[in-house]
């Protein structure tokens, strides 16, 4: 545990704390985050194919290497041993005659069920959606199908299966984003596939031949847009196993555009049944989407999302690159108000970004973490601003019992009419005290409230980086907020 208490004294200096954030020149330098993963160049959207193997976290992602807008999709690739410092790797999967490479997942085929490796050297197997644009342009409905690739060198290089696709499209547009789960007690693989506005489940013994099992979602969840990027996995609560189904949706999020909803229920290896009736959101902010978890991490469920929104993702003011990922988050199943909720908090590895000496507060021109505990009967506001009077305000409104992020006057907003807005999120917790954990990078803020029960993520683009902060509220037992400087990640 880092020793952060020394930072409380900085609040007494003034209501304004100069965080010593870098200034930079040009949009690429000014807006590239320091603790969030971004591509070196080109476009990035959905995280996919995430797998942990032999001490390495693999992060694959939707990537257009040839332009900073969405285009022919490849699988970009990065690796890390600690979820914070990432090394860029060569592109893993390129388009071919069957189509471009849309989202999917990757697993360790430990038992070599596919026969693509050996028991001594089991393969990593990736499954993804082929998107055939030529068929789509001809207004055919079967323009998406599922293919696989495998790696026998720990994910460094990948070979596509010669008999792709492994699942043909039955004639349904929006037939994509396969996520694979191993069901140990049934010795089989289960695929969750996003099909228009519901989830289809398929089963396989070997990852090569698949049978349709069931579908979910016709009368459940939010249906304001297309369902995408599902994820199915078990979680324990008081020694009982429940199943979580993540479903991303666009549009139809709680604050407009893209968002991640989830269901808690039971899965018998064939059908998923939800025990939650109301729609639940993993993040209420406008800028967390396509979030899924790493496979092969044991009992831990580590989640990451794309930090943008399809409403404006192609036009945000960066030049040679676009988009970032959220910080990795650890998921936990809890009960509140007699219902199940999924909490998300920064993964424990991210805490290592904290700087632990006073000197480094000024040495690192770093992002900032703010932690505070306040009475629930008070308004809370945290204002980030600069000398141009641009600002972003976040906090808690006690009358509405809501958290909020207001980026109305945050700088560059004219690129999309939906960007300059105030976004709100309900407070789920009924505790008498409010706990906020806020991660501030150059052009993003991630708010984790009440130990992750309510979360919000938002990006912004000031003309000059925010280098000042004001914090107001009624603190518990006169405990002022902690201001925790963060050292930049290494992106190589």
What does this entry show, briefly?
By secondary structure, this protein is mainly beta. Helices cover 3% and strands 44% of the residues. Strands 4-3-2-1-20 form a five-stranded mixed beta sheet, with no helix packed on it. Strands 13, 14, 15, 16 and 17 form a five-stranded antiparallel beta sheet that branches.
Description:
- With 492 residues, the chain is mainly beta.
- It is built from 3 helices and 32 strands.
- The protein has helices at residues 26-31, 133-137, 358-363, and strands at residues 42-53, 56-64, 74-80, 87-93, 100-108, 124-131, 144-151, 159-160, 175-183, 188-195, 198-204, 211-216, 226-237, 240-250, 259-267, 272-274, 280-281, 289-293, 302-306, 321-322, 329-336, 339-346, 368-375, 380-385, 391-397, 402-406, 422-426, 433-441, 444-449, 454-459, 468-472, 482-485.
- The strands form 7 sheets. Strands 4-3-2-1-20 form a 5-stranded mixed sheet, with no helix packed on it.
- A hairpin with a 6-residue loop joins strand 11 and strand 12.
- The longest helix has 6 residues, at 26-31.
- It is globular and about 65 Å long.
